[in-house]
Each structure stands twice: as C-alpha cells, then as structure tokens.
Amino acid sequence: MIEISLVTLLIFLVLGVPVSFAIGLSGLLAIMFGSEIPAFMAVQQAIRGMNSFSLMAGPLFILAGEIMGAADLSARILDFCRACVSSVRGGMGMVSVLANMIFAGISGSGAATMSAVSTQTVPELKKEGYDHGFIASMIAGSGALAPIIPPSTNMIVYASLTGFSVGKLFMGGLMPGIIIGVCLMIMCYWYAKKYDVDRGSGAFSLRRVAKAFIKSFFALITPVIILAGVVTGFFTATESSIVACIYALICGFFIYRTLKIGDLMGIFKRAASSSAMLMMIMGISNIYSYIFARENVTPVVEQFLLSITDNPSVLVFIIIVMMLIIGCFMETLAATAVILPTLYPIVMHMGVDPLLFGVLFSISTVVGALTPPVGLYLFLSMNIAQASFKQAISYTGPVVLIILAVMLLMWFFPPIVTFVPNLLMGA
After folding, report:
1. Residue whose C-alpha is closest to residue 144's, from 88, 184, 191, 189
2. How many alpha carbons fall within 13 Å on the CB side of residue 220?
3. 353 in the Ramachandran plot: left (φ > 0), alpha (ψ -120 to 50) or beta?
C-alpha cells in the first residue's frame, strides 16, 4: 500500500496535478488496490482530518484578516508605522515590514497579509527608488512572518496534528518573529544606504506618533486582545479566532464605519476560498496518516534515523533540512500534514522539547514558500511588485539566510522560544 501511494503521488506531482488532489488520489488508489480496506475509508479519514477543534481557528483567523482588510484597517496601521519609522534612512521599507508584522498578528496568513498591506506600500517603495526585485523580496520576507508571529496558521495545523498546546506555540513564535522582522528592517536600512535611496521623509515627531496611535488604536490592539485572552486562559486559541472575527466586525461597522453590509459577501467568499484550501489539505492528507499508521511506518522511519544518529540535535537538524528541501517542491501545509504525524513521535521519544521543535518546524516550512519551484510567497510578491523572477531571486537569498540564522540561534539559545510561553503560561 505504501509503495503504491508514494509512486502514484510522485507521478501525479510530475504531471502537474495540484498537490492536495495528488495526495488524495494516490492515497485512494493505495487503499483500493493495495489493501482489502473498503474505499469509503478514504472518505472517512478525510472527514476525520478536518474534524478538529483547534483546526477551526485557521479559517476563522483568515476570516478576521479579510474583515480587517476590507475595513481598511491596514491603512490605519500603515499610518502608524509611517509615523514611527519613515523618518529614518530606509524608512519606507521599514514601514512595509513593520505593517506586515502587525497585520500578521491579526490574520495568521502570509498571503492575506501581503495582499492587505504590500499592495498599498509598493507604489511608495518604487517612488523612493527601491529596485523591483528588492521590493519583491521584502514583501515575501515580511509576508513569511505571518506563519511565525501568532496567530500562525502553520502552528494551528501543527497543534491539530500533534495535540500540543497551540497557545504555547503562539507565544513561542513571538520572539523569533520579532527578531526576523527587525533583521529585515536592518536590511532595508543597509540597502537604502548602499544605493543612496529612501533617505527618510521628515523629522521624527512623538506628537505625530501619538496622533497616529490614537487614530489606529482599535486596529493595533487586535493582536494584544488575541494573545492576552489566550495567555490568561480567558478563552482558548480557537475561541480567540471567534473573538477576532467579532471584534473585526465591530471595528468595521461601528468604530471606523468603513464596512457596509454589501461588503460581507465578498469577504466571506475570499475567506471561504482560502479556508477551503487549508481544510482540503488537512482532510486529504489524513488519508496518508491512516496509510502510514496501517503500514506501521513510524517504527521503520525511527529505526532508519537512529541508524544514522542517536543524537537528538543531529536528528532535529536532519528533519529541518528535510523539510527545507521538501518545502521547495511541495506546498508547506500539505508537507506538514503528511510528514509530521510520522516524525513527531520519533522526536518526542528522543526527548526533544516539543515547544522548541514545534516552532523550529513551523518556521522551516516558511522557507519553502520563499524558494522555487513552488515558492508561494515569492511568486505572489513578484506579482505585487511587478518584478521578474531573476530580479526577485537575487535578493531573496539574504532573506532566507536571515531566517536560517535565527533558527540556528533558537537551537543554540532555546530561551528565545521558551522564555515567553513558560513565563506567561507555565512550564
């Protein structure tokens, strides 16, 4: 059954069949022709893969991000970011990164964040003299912060597959996400200084910052409400997604009054489209989890990995490298859903900190979205910035290196990940 599933999956991927369909079809064929299990079990397992309380948070956070975007809260966030950093060299690039970081704390989706924020900053970045390729790489890099900074869709998927606390994963990703964001802002400063562009606009003014903060206050506190509720235990991470949606509607209809009833159909349609992709991947990928469990794959993989090394650090390094490579050729959520259920028990058996591994694993899936041939964030950013592949890829390398450097720092200094969740939520 395993042989049939893997061979047919490879054939479907080579033929260009969409990943989720390739996984589903190969799994179905494996069950039909490689075992005596009834074919309806594939449907049953697909439904079971979507039937997760923690997984419900993903579509709801996507919906919250769509509501915030339609309510034009991204423009208010941008005004606040301009007031904070636009006066320094490379300020407009920093504005783009900082605004993406804040909006990432609302949507949890890289694609939604890039669409809501970057489409508004690109004309200003071009006006300041930034190269199209650099703009694309900055958009992709700052969009990639969404799966790292809470509420991360990648971490929600990880939690639903492993049963680990999604709240702790959220808090664990906070510091690494901020560090990566700061490094990207430094990169903007370096580029502006080297190529003598974007010298900053106007002088820094606390009064301007305060005014912009008041104007955008209700938008800016959205991530705070989400995290505070989860940390205090007032609501779960999944319930926080419902709170985010309700709060977004209140902001749009009653506080800023930028939403109309007629906007809701478009909002729900876009959110449903993005959520359908997530739920389809999770449901169909569970067919593979079922096949792997039936074929007792985990002990075989564990034995193979232990034949290479019994050092937990080396094992984690191998897994991360493997995910980095797979992410270049396969949609990251699909890869996570297929591979993680097999690898997670092995890593836990080796005594690796589940929080540290969870954050490292979630970040490793991001890199694949920045690199070809799949490179969802890369190609979306190229479209937004109107840059060619050659232009974009020349600046994407440093962005990837920044993320990899932060991952190494996390491994050698785990408190970057563990300090905040252990302090606020207990060990």
Report:
1. 184
2. 16
3. beta
